[in-house]
Specification:
heterodimer; A: Rossmann fold; seven-stranded mixed beta sheet; 7 strands; globular; disordered N terminus; B: mainly alpha; elongated; binds guanosine-5'-triphosphate; binds magnesium ion; DUF742 domain-containing protein (chain B); DUF742 (chain B)
Chain lengths: 199, 118
């Protein structure tokens, strides 16, 4: 448990708008590492208490602990301009946390799905979640040295990726590399036909 | 348009229905909602948790997620406390830029350029 809880890492005065990006992917694919590499604050986690059925519960109203489980949600922060701050949330991959992920995806700018080429199919679930939520997303292959390398077309085929969905490679441990999925995501949002110039 | 419920290599992704579940949290409060405390509001009369939350927010702007993590309160609890502090005008909340405004090309371009120049 951390002791220095009174230390706030306050945003710069003038920051008035936030945007949210959700990072999903299977167990140990590098979600926390990704969020930490890009974040300007030490990545932190917020705790959700959930029932076994997967509902987020309000612990102020009192409940019996044996029916609940606690799950941590990693997040990081990146101040982008004088007035805009980006928050990144890394969600747990297990289906029993579906309800929490659904809520997390609401109001998001878009998503990043992380893939380890040694276990590609394990990312299908995260891709499906983004699609069900109608959230634009990019797929980022985290290049673990020990994992096999494939060509882009092989990867697209194995992932059954929609042709318009961007696919990027990155090393989630390096900020300069980890920012590439974020750039790809925002470029993807800008390229969508639904994006009309402001009238 | 995003394809929904696509099949991957002949396998069908299991689908979990989410309708009908109780959602105790206010939809308007997001983990990425920014919280701004009103320094002119008296803190007496607030319960201990709410007062601690206000004291934490007074020095500057933070997101609900950060307040939750800093105070080591579960996010659902933080949302309950924050929503009543918003109701009493102790806090002003600013939700993450809504989907409609995300279609604003200029905003997205500023975000992209800032990421590139990082
Ligand atoms: N070699 C190598 N190791 C990595 C890379 N990315 C992450 N790791 C390591 O893989 C492990 C898992 O990374 P995490 O970031 O914790 O993965 P996660 O997706 O948050 O995992 P869960 O939250 O447990 O599902 C850690 O020990 C990381 O240091 C990478 O690009 N290369
Ligand atoms: Mg993690």
């Amino acid at each position: 448990m951390r002791s220095s809880t009174s230390e706030g890492n306050y945003l710069a005065p003038g920051v008035s708008h936030s945007v949210k990006i959700v990072v999903l992917g299977p167990f140990a694919v590098g979600k926390t590492t990704f969020v930490g590499a890009v974040s300007e604050i030490r990545p932190t986690s917020t705790e959700e208490r959930m029932t076994k059925a997967g509902e987020i519960v309000d612990t102020l109203r009192g409940l019996s602990d044996k029916n609940t489980t606690t799950v941590a949600l990693d997040f990081g922060r990146l101040t982008l301009t004088d007035d805009i701050v980006l928050y990144m949330f890394g969600g747990p991959g297990q289906p029993r946390f579906d309800y929490m992920i659904d809520e997390l995806m609401q109001g998001a700018l878009g998503g990043v799905v992380l893939v380890d080429t040694a276990r590609i199919t394990e990312s299908w679930d995260a891709m499906g979640r983004m699609e069900e939520a109608d959230l634009p997303y990019v797929v980022a292959v985290n290049t673990f040295a020990a994992s096999p390398r494939y060509s882009e077309s092989e990867l697209r085929k194995a992932l059954d990726l929609h042709p318009s969905t961007p696919l990027v490679e990155c090393d989630v441990r390096e900020k300069s590399s980890a920012k590439s999925p974020l750039i790809a995501l925002v470029s993807h949002l800008l390229s969508r036909p639904s994006l009309e110039p402001a009238s | 348009m995003t394809p929904r419920g696509r099949r991957r290599a002949g396998m069908v992704r299991p689908y979990t229905p989410t309708g009908g579940r109780a959602a105790p949290t206010r939809r308007t409060l997001d983990l990425a909602t920014l919280l701004i405390a009103d320094p002119d509001k008296p803190l007496h009369g607030l319960d201990a948790h709410s007062r601690r939350l206000m004291q934490h927010c007074l020095p500057g702007v933070l997101s609900l997620a950060e307040v939750s993590a800093d105070l080591q309160l579960p996010a659902a609890v933080t949302k309950v406390l924050v929503s009543s502090l918003v109701d009493s005008s102790h806090l002003v909340s600013r939700d993450p830029v809504p989907a409609a405004q995300q279609h604003d090309r200029q905003l997205l371009e500023r975000i992209r350029d800032a990421l590139i120049n990082l």
